[in-house]
Amino acid sequence: MVDPNQGKIASVGCCAEIIHYQRLPDDRMKMITLGQQRFRVLEYVREKPYRVGLVEWVQDEAPSKDLQPIATDVEHLLRDVVRLSAKLTDQNIELPEDLPDLPVELSYWVAHNLHGVPHEQQSLLEMLDTAARLEREAEILTTTRNHLAARTVLKDTFNQKL
């Protein structure tokens, strides 16, 4: 990720497999990717025509506690957010049936699907503690759920008066 304000490149990134691409008329490309492995840039060895660097692979630290309770909370919050979003927009929005079961994979899935908040996604990508990542995702989802619940109440109240 590049910070557009400072022009600074993040030191942690993710290798990705290109699943699908589409060339646009102006020679840009739209790509759908699947993240594979996180890395930390140790140093850049070339800047042009594109950056090349030495990296090290990064992995989450071994958990010091049972992650299942917080993962279960995150999944419930996620389901609440999807349910409220569907109700608020009058659309059929559903979570995929193959939502990850393992806490680590669920934490990555949630982080990936937080659209519109790239700095938050980058922060989650850089976390090496799965419990901390899940706890932050629980905070984000709780705030989102509460916001959507309030908007849903307003919508329901307004529609009843009509």
Give structural notes.
This protein folds into 2 domains: 12-57, no CATH class; 68-161, no CATH class. Helix 1 (68-89) runs parallel beside helix 2 (103-112), helix 1 packs parallel to helix 4 (130-161) and helix 2 (103-112) packs across helix 4. The chain is built from 4 helices and 3 strands, in the order βββαααα. A 3-stranded antiparallel beta sheet has the order 1-2-3. A hairpin with a 5-residue loop joins strand 2 and strand 3. The chain starts with 11 loop residues before the first strand and ends with a helix. It is 45% helix and 22% strand.
Query: Structural class from helices and strands?
Result: alpha+beta
Mean pLDDT: 92
As laid out across the biggest beta sheet, the strand order is 1-2-3
Q: How many discrete domains?
A: 2
Query: What's the main sheet like?
Result: 3 strands, antiparallel
Strand-and-helix sequence, N→C? Answer: EEEHHHH
- Percentage beta strand: 15-25%
Query: What is the helix fraction of residues, given as a range?
Result: 40-55%
Total number of β-strand segments? Answer: 3
The low-confidence runs, each spanning 5 or more residues with pLDDT under 50, are none
